[in-house]
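Duplicate of #3305? Posting structure anyway:
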């Protein structure tokens, strides 16, 4: 029934609806385990970091324990910022298919909603993906720093300690080099060029993109493309070398 492998769980579902609030973040907020465990609890069982009510969050860590049950899989995920976080993912086994779970010792990225169950904090997972490139761990921590720096207007190190006030902020409260949608200036330039070709069925090719952005390093263009695809700002069309934007121009 259960298969202990490094693979994304299939057939997962959750009956817990997302927190709806005008103060809730609609995007997925990168977090550390310690931030989720220390988040304040607000009305209706929701959690908040500062003034931001949490909706969907993502954490990256190593699986310490895994307990497959009849209708769910429970994990203990540790990112070394605090005690391990309890993670629960519902599974549908009615079709008799083998459900793949992440084995202990595997690094995973978990996306879900924080909940309080019988006095214990859980992350109700909507998606659990095994990490194959360990650079993604560092990338996640940088995303955590950037996201919370934008929310608070303060500068943090990778351990989320305040190191200084942000002197490079613009009047809108966004750090220089970071756009209002959370993209870096380079990512914004790449997305802008992709959007310019939104009227074409095939979008823009990678070759044309490099030509239009000849002033940028190829490595920066590639990393920006990977980020935009992963975060849902862009998608592939006829092959892996043609891109279109999911956002209106």
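Output from current build:
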């Amino acid at each position: 029934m259960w298969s202990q492998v490094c693979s994304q769980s299939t057939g997962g579902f959750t009956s817990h609806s997302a927190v709806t609030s005008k103060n809730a973040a609609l995007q997925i907020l990168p977090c550390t385990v310690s931030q989720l465990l220390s988040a304040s609890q607000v009305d209706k069982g929701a959690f908040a970091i500062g003034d931001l009510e949490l909706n969907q969050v993502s954490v990256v860590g190593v699986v310490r324990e895994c307990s497959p049950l009849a209708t769910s899989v429970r994990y203990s995920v540790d990112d070394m910022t605090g005690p391990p976080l309890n993670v629960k993912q519902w599974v549908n086994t009615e079709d008799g298919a083998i459900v793949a779970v992440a084995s202990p010792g595997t690094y995973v990225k978990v996306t879900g909603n924080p909940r309080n169950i019988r006095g214990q904090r859980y992350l109700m997972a909507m998606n659990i993906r095994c990490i194959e490139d360990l650079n993604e761990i560092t990338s996640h921590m940088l995303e955590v720093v950037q996201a919370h720096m934008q929310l608070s207007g303060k500068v943090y190190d990778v351990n989320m300690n305040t190191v200084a006030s942000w002197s490079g902020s613009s009047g809108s409260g966004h750090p220089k080099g970071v756009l209002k949608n959370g993209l870096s200036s380079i990512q914004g330039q790449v997305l802008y060029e992709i959007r310019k070709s939104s009227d074409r069925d095939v979008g823009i090719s990678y070759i044309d993109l490099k030509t239009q952005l000849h002033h940028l390093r190829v490595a920066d263009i590639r990393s920006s493309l990977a980020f935009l695809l992963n975060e849902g700002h862009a998608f592939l069309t006829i092959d892996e070398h043609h891109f279109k934007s999911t956002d209106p121009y």
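Confirmed duplicate; merging threads. The two ends are 47 Å apart (CA to CA). Helices lie at 33-38, 135-152, 185-196, 206-212, 218-230.
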